[in-house]
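To assess whether the prediction recovers the assembly geometry, we first specified each molecular entity separately, as shown.
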Amino acid sequence: MNDIEIFGNLDAGKNFVNSIQNKRFLFSFVISYTETCEIPGITVAGANLDFIKFTPPADAEFLHYGKCKCIDTIPMTPDGKPTPAILTKVALEAASIPHLVINAGSKIIPDLPYFETGLDYGKNIRNEPALDRYYVLRAIESGRIIGRTLGAVTDCLIIGESIPGGTTTAMAVMKGFGLNGCVSSSIPKNPLDLKNNVVNDALMRSHSKDPYDVIANMGDPMIPLVAGMISAASQSCKVLLAGGTQMAAVLALGHFTGYEKDSIAIGTTSYILNDNSANFLNTIKEIDDVPILIVNPRLEDSKIQGLRSFSEGFVKEGAGAGGTIISAILKTGIDSKKLLEKFEEEYQRVVTLQ
Amino acid sequence: MNDIEIFGNLDAGKNFVNSIQNKRFLFSFVISYTETCEIPGITVAGANLDFIKFTPPADAEFLHYGKCKCIDTIPMTPDGKPTPAILTKVALEAASIPHLVINAGSKIIPDLPYFETGLDYGKNIRNEPALDRYYVLRAIESGRIIGRTLGAVTDCLIIGESIPGGTTTAMAVMKGFGLNGCVSSSIPKNPLDLKNNVVNDALMRSHSKDPYDVIANMGDPMIPLVAGMISAASQSCKVLLAGGTQMAAVLALGHFTGYEKDSIAIGTTSYILNDNSANFLNTIKEIDDVPILIVNPRLEDSKIQGLRSFSEGFVKEGAGAGGTIISAILKTGIDSKKLLEKFEEEYQRVVTLQ
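The predicted structure of the complete assembly is given in tokenized form:
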């Protein structure tokens, strides 16, 4: 397991890793949407504004079918860097990890069976509250029901997400809770000024410290749904939050909705750790002393430029890539060098599809 | 395991039972709808015609919440006999068996998270084809995707269904496949003449022997979805088809869509076996030589008339009751006498709710 580094709570991290080695894993992929992503310049998750809303369902379809159905290509940045779902798909297949999709308010539904929660997408938090408070509570309750079932059928539930613009709502939620809330970005030069302006506009609308008011005012549907999931699932299995700063916001809400601390870890890529603007470790530490598992996917060693760009600060994480790579390593003992070969094969296959 | 009797393929049945004792179980509850149920006199699944469409989602809600949300009471026959979901709920809770809901074209969606398949409800087969052929193929494919995931996370996948009017479409499908196709009923005096008339009207519309044409003409969305599920799930876990004659129709389609025979059994109540009009054992034998596990829920010993009526030919089976009772016994070793006490407690709780 030399490919996985533990940060944060080291002892809890070692226990977490030991308890799930060679065990059963299940990946749940939460797709969602916030109109906040429509603010120009805030995200590159999608080739252009018209495509952004297709990114979450297209990622979900790609994981299942190896191609997308709701769009003709696979999700790309404007200059052609592919979705991190490529990494996720390879990791899941290499370790035969089953997966399912949960729709938490995606604007477009995926063309495959998925868990429906009845949630609507989030509004643009620069202009108006994200959600009705009723929907925040409903999202948490739906998350609990799903988490209870999924937690009962696996040893480790991996939770990943796809919500364009989600780092901005995550940052807003953390600030709303009085935390520092540094966040990462899918762009090397993180548009932090823009994000701060959006967050400040949202903060000015409400001074309520009630956690559900904070989510309603400036969150998104993913955050309360996943908070509900971890609350229930962590009672019966280990939970690996596969993501970067969005999962920090989930954990921040989890402080109020509850979770079994010994059963939770965050798993992400080293690219998030290396993103100085995010100060990821400090951000998590400010919320809770949980373990943070970090994998380096070694994409800097790739002969393919599109993959190397991940290590150069583009995309960095998404679609649960880091957490599923960690899980594949823990389940099967596969090393990151072998995985890199498989990433490259998959990249070549996908490029040929286009 | 004296409470479970094996019929059909005895050796395979013993192997099946031995392989899942004390193992992990997962109950998937498929809710669906066919307008065929609107033919007067064909079903009593619901207090009256306006309520029938609420029965599947209400059963699903009852299993999760212990009460229904889409209606004020729990599903009842017109004279107040309660849904067999009472038995299912008790069995699942007694053995801590996790469960989830799959929507295969229910007319009303349940107020809880569920697997969505994008299928529409089935049309009245007396008047018109049930489904577009495209939707039959889509249902099978959706079933395969769901079955692959669920089969990977459990040792035994229990599949139950709730589709009012479903015995009539099941009968039609079996006749369409050239089988004898005797079916059971939720009423002691099975309205077989009426069912036969409906089936004959449907048969006259098409003479195609293509299995997907048969389902399209006179099936319902549940049958192809569950056939897809067993096709994929039986590759990786045991599958217990929890139901009566509807599951016979699934198995008949499964002849064409494929399944791992050694991994399949049918599990139902002795009330189905005792229903002479159905000739259940012969019906299954005509399709495939699979094991049939039968449990007697001993409701005839109950001090409560509403429960005794199940043993007197009313309701008989539904919402996966028989299969979940069998699973509870196999998972935990609980006996049917102890379960009967729990059924009575639950019945009293529910009656107090009304």
